Inverse folding.
């Protein structure tokens, strides 16, 4: 009986596969620990290359990023067309180092894009007559801040940082001003890397510079919103250099540059020293405290407060800008927090990004819900401030807490920012058009303190040189040591940033002046300060009338019930 063709094909394939397996089995190497039989009458094989000393460290890159130093100890050698083990090991190490550099650079690019978010949020919360001026400050601070930081800011902040381990950088940034206090070394200021000259022109150092520079620019941008609609542009330029060359670098050195706040754990046993993973204190609190000093010196906008001290809410002109800008900032925050690992291979990146996202969302929901329940409307601008408050608060602890804790921190920050906005306006009688003092200053301090309560001890072993110990908060059995270190860092920020910023604004006030003339403020700053209108299709007369006579009954982020208001002319929306 003949078999069908299909069955014969299947049988043939099965037999072919069986013989193939038998052939592979007979030709396979012997099991581990057994030597394979040597083939008969074969040409002697070439000698195997000497085993490399894998205990030697991988070569370091030179100032151009090339690993030319590997040529003498681990140059590419071939044996039968195969790379030697030491070369493969070195290639893997180089790949990891280059991956870390690439991750830090990409994260820096994301943070740089946050400038667009700040520009949109601040401009949307200002009036149409000041659009060009507000936008100009946000783009100008990028150039001003970068140049100031390039000249000396980076050297003062990171000049004593030491080798950049995750990038296998050489020991270039090693000079630090320090003194003895209580028998312990207090390191206060670096001084390596001015102008990125000499040895500082190294790939690892340049990567660190770019990443730190965009953080500094974020700090410098924060006061532009708080002081908007009355700040003279020339005074703003002077401020930009002071912050990028002095205010930010000094405190940044204390926390991130190996300074005395970071050493509170090593020197005094206070947890792992002051910890700020991505900038709640170094970036946001510094910007918020600087904005507080500036708001005191400049005073409120014309028409903000009545004679009896009650506040009038002055509306922004474009809520769409505010929402879009907030979303851009939230997107950039993944680079802000996630990039602060400075290492692509860091297994904590996913947790950092998820906690960041959750805290921002929780802040948005609690702020929106609070406004809805207390003031009757889910104000979108205050909800946006709640989202930003949650992001600011989680920036310091994002690597040291779990997702549930991130929701708690962000949710509290969403309500805290509303209370702070009311306090700044009602009690302090300060005018902050965008709520920067509250979002960045208050919530930045709050976020730093949360490490001392909620750090779970699962990440950060050896942080700040405290051997074999990860940050552990009070609620996880860590005692008050870490919380004390966090509180000292927050206090040090206020005690350094506020006096220096206040003195700087005071000196500017006595020389070139901080504030525009009242006539220019009433007409709008676009033409007097910048020479152009933000919206070219507007009639300047309409802008003038609207700016001079209109005081709205409600405004961005501030419920209409906060103060008495009057309307002498209809508002003109751009």
């Amino acid at each position: 009986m003949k078999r069908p063709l299909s069955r014969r094909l299947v049988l043939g394939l099965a037999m072919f596969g069986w013989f193939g397996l038998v052939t592979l089995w007979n030709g396979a190497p012997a099991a581990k620990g057994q030597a394979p039989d040597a083939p008969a009458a074969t040409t002697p094989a070439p000698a195997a290359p000497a085993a490399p000393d894998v205990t030697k460290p991988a070569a370091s890159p030179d100032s151009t990023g090339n690993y030319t130093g590997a040529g003498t100890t681990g140059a590419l050698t071939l044996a039968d067309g195969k790379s030697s083990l030491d070369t493969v090991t070195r290639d893997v190490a180089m790949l990891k180092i280059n991956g870390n550099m690439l991750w830090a650079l990409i994260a820096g690019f994301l943070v740089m894009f946050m400038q667009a978010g700040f520009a949109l949020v601040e401009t949307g919360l200002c009036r149409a007559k000041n659009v060009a001026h507000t936008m100009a400050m946000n783009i100008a601070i990028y150039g001003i801040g970068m140049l100031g930081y390039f000249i000396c800011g980076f050297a003062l902040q990171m000049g004593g940082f030491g080798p950049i381990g995750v990038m296998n950088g050489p020991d270039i940034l090693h000079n630090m001003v320090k003194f003895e206090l209580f028998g312990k070394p207090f390191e206060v200021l670096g001084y390596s890397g001015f102008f990125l000259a000499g040895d500082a022109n190294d790939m690892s150092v340049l990567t660190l510079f770019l990443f730190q520079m965009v953080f500094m620019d974020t700090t410098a941008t924060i006061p532009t919103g708080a002081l908007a609609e009355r700040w003279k542009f020339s005074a703003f330029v002077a401020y930009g250099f002071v912050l990028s060359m002095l205010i930010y670098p000094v405190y940044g050195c204390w926390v991130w540059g190996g300074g005395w706040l970071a050493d509170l754990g090593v020197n005094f046993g206070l947890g792992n020293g002051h910890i700020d993973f991505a900038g709640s204190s170094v970036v946001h609190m510094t910007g918020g405290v600087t904005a507080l000093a500036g708001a005191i010196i400049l005073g409120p906008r014309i028409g903000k407060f009545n004679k009896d001290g009650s506040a009038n809410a002055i509306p922004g002109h474009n809520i769409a800008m505010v929402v879009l800008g907030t979303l851009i900032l939230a997107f950039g925050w993944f680079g802000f927090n996630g990039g602060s690992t400075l290492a692509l291979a860091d297994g904590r990146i996913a947790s950092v990004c998820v906690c960041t996202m959750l805290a921002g969302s929780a802040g948005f929901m609690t702020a929106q819900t609070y406004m809805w329940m207390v003031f009757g409307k889910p104000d979108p601008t205050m909800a946006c401030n709640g989202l930003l408050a949650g992001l600011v608060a989680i920036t310091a602890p994002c690597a040291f807490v779990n997702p549930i804790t991130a929701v708690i921190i962000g949710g509290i920050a969403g309500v805290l920012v509303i209370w702070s906005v009311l306090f700044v306006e009602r009690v302090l009688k300060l005018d902050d058009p965008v709520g920067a003092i509250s979002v960045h200053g208050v919530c930045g301090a709050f976020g730093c303190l949360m490490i001392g309560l909620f750090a779970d001890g699962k990440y950060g072993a050896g942080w700040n040189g405290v051997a074999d110990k990860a940050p552990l908060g009070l609620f996880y059995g860590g005692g008050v040591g870490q919380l004390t270190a966090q509180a000292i860092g927050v206090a040090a920020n206020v005690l350094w940033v506020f006096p220096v910023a206040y003195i700087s604004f005071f000196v500017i006030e006595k020389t070139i002046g901080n504030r525009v003339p009242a006539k220019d403020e009433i007409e709008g700053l676009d033409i007097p300060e910048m020479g152009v209108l933000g919206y070219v299709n507007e009639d300047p007369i309409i802008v003038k009338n609207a700016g001079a006579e209109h005081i709205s009954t409600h405004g961005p982020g501030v419920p209409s019930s906060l103060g008495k208001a009057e309307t002498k002319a209809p508002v003109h929306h751009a």
